[in-house]
Amino acid sequence: MSSGDRFICGIEIHQQLDTKKLFCSCDSELSEESTSTYLRRLRPMAGESGITDRAALAESKKQLSYRYQTPAKVSCLVELDEEPPNNVNEDALDVALTFAAMADATIFDEIYFMRKIVVDGSGPGGYQRTAMVAKDGRIKVNGKEIVIESVCLEEDSSRKIEEKDGEITYRLDRLSIPLIEIATGPDIRTPEEAMEVALRIGTMLRATKRVKRGIGTIREDINISLPGSRRTEIKGAQELRLLPTYVENEVQRHTMLLVIKDILAERKVCIDETMIDVTDIFKDCPSKVIRSALSDKGKVLAVRLHGFAGVLNGDSGRLRLGAEMAQRARTKGVKGIFHSDELPAYGIEEEYVSRTKEALSMKGEHDAFVLCAEREGKAKAALEAVTERAKEALTGVPEETRDPQPDGTSRYMRPLPGAARMYPETDIPPILMTEEKLKQIYNNLPELPENITKRLISKYGINAQQADQIVRQGNEDIFEKIAKDKALISAAAATFLGTFTEMEREGIDVNAISEKDILDIFSSLKAGNFAKEALPSLFREIAKGTPVSDAVSKLGVGAMSESEAAKIIAKIVTERENFVKEKGMGSVGPLMGPVMEALRGKLDGKKMNDLLTKEIKKLL
After folding, report:
1. Is residue 441 assigned to a domain?
2. What pLDDT score was predicted for residue 270?
3. Are 158 and 76 members of one domain?
4. What are the beta bridge partners of residue 9?
5. Of 225, 247, 264, which one is at a domain's C-terminal end?
6. Does residue 572 share a domain with residue 527?
């Protein structure tokens, strides 16, 4: 991204709260069991304004069926939408009010729940309940003020289990786990700032001590626009470190689409929606995709795009409208499309390209075409989606919701929803904010992250960077429990800041290690059962699910007496006697490698060095 790029960005944080479910007494935990299933079809309905939301319409056109699994103890008739909701969980409401107060937001005198129409199957009733708790807050991030536009309390969606043959299976364990949704203003100006803002909000939420931890418990939506473009939303990002990459790639995508808009305007493009059957042209085509489609009673359909040559995949791959069209086509159930900017290729030779151009009466140098080989109905729907995307290209960047990918890119999901999807929830009475309730909230605000950082520095002697990182990770409570023994402070800091960070980079879920496991490991270290050098390997083993009691013996890192260690070190030195006599005391450093390999985790590193030095001196 060049320094001259200008964009505006806001984020929405969705954090699961560690309470019971929002509208019933079920536990808010995930389950791998299911007692029964229910099959449903959903249809869109008009919102409070009388208009049916475009995103709901787009989802309904997929004509999918939804099967719902109902695990015991973590779901009930409330989640299945067969029973009215109970009163709102007070603990969850208190967490939302607490964050609002921490962000100096204006808490509403009355809180009303609304139904948000969602017909992608994630809720059996075709809606999600949400309530705005507060608005107009402020937080400071690196000295800059970021607006908190709203603080909402809502229910999480169902968990998708599988998708096949026009049917999606969801599990209701996650549905109605309380979520706090925090939306910032469009104040973010750099990719890195998006991550910093998310980090700040995350540390404030963890300061309440009532939020869940682990993969999937916190998700970020990223809203981005450039001058002259429209807003797009990347929905449900979970990798915090990837937020800058998502922003960078989306800004580049917007920039590309604005360039394409200018090219098409200069060419005075108009869209030709005429679709023709070119199956006869391709009946002998060696392309595996086309042969497979034709053998399945499919057809090859083509549509002409006047003026689109070079923007589907041109300028050395920097203009890639064809990829955008392919994403739209796939929402209609096809595997993909072919377009003229990428042909001949994929078994489609020049002969077939030329004959297709002739059949489409393509004469202009900037004319292009798109092909789809599928059953006729699917192929037609896919090319209709392609021409719709071509029309949108004339105005630049379409408003849409996009799905984040693991590589930092995103894909089209559906049109961006609007206000038309909201209508009142009549089963839940308004919640009145009393002076007593507000006084309780404001008198019991948690310690702010920056104050926790200062306390860790002054009380435990760690530096500012270490303290800040421990707070960002949300590990300050467990760190303080370990640090009561001053001898463990250094090892605890190294674990949280070094070992756990490395494990996360390796894709290991550090949150799978319970607080009890961490405390047990450090208690065992204090008892001298192993050396601190064994901590990284022990935590990696525990993250796999190995009990603490078994990890030490399984890895063979139990503590060794100094006398036993001295014998092993003496053997290592004796085997390298000539090297020791040649290098003298300079051999200590090189020989620490084999010594540590033999004794890692069984003896403290300093003791290893002392014993090695002693043995070397014996030979000199």
Report:
1. no
2. 86
3. yes
4. 188, 224
5. 264
6. no
Q: Is the pLDDT of residue 71 over 60?
A: yes
360 in the same domain as 234: no
The number of distinct structural domains making up the chain is 4
Q: Are 92 and 155 in contact (CB under 8 A)?
A: no
Domain extent at residue 208:
8-264
- Nearest CA to 580 out of 614, 605, 617, 611 is that of 617
Side chain identity, residue 363: K
Peptide bond into 344 cis (omega under 30): yes
pLDDT of residue 4: 40
Report field, pTM of the whole predicted structure over 0.70: yes
224 lies in the same domain as 291: no
Quick: pLDDT tens for 521-548. 999 888 878 888 889 989 999 999 899 8
Domain final residue, candidates 524, 540, 555: 555
Q: At 63, is the pLDDT very low, low, confident or very high (cuts 50, 70, 90)?
A: confident
388 plus 488 within the same structural domain: no
pLDDT at position 602, please?
Answer: 63
- Between β-strands 232-237 and 400-404, what pairing exists: parallel, antiparallel or unpaired? parallel
Contact in structure between 257 and 397 (CB atoms under 8 Å): yes
Question: Within 410-509, where are the H helices?
Answer: 435-442, 449-460, 464-473, 476-482, 489-494, 500-505
Q: What is the mean pLDDT of residues 342-350?
A: 96
Residue 389 vs residues 305, 374, 504: alpha-carbon distances, Å:
11, 19, 39
Note the pLDDT tens digit of each residue in 436-458. Answer: 999 999 999 999 999 999 999 99
Domain annotation covers residue 483: yes
Same domain, residue pair 246 and 357: no
Q: Please check whether residues 210 and 162 belong to one and the same domain.
A: yes
Question: What's phi and psi for 347, nearest 5 deg?
Answer: 85, 0
pLDDT at residue 2, as a whole number: 45
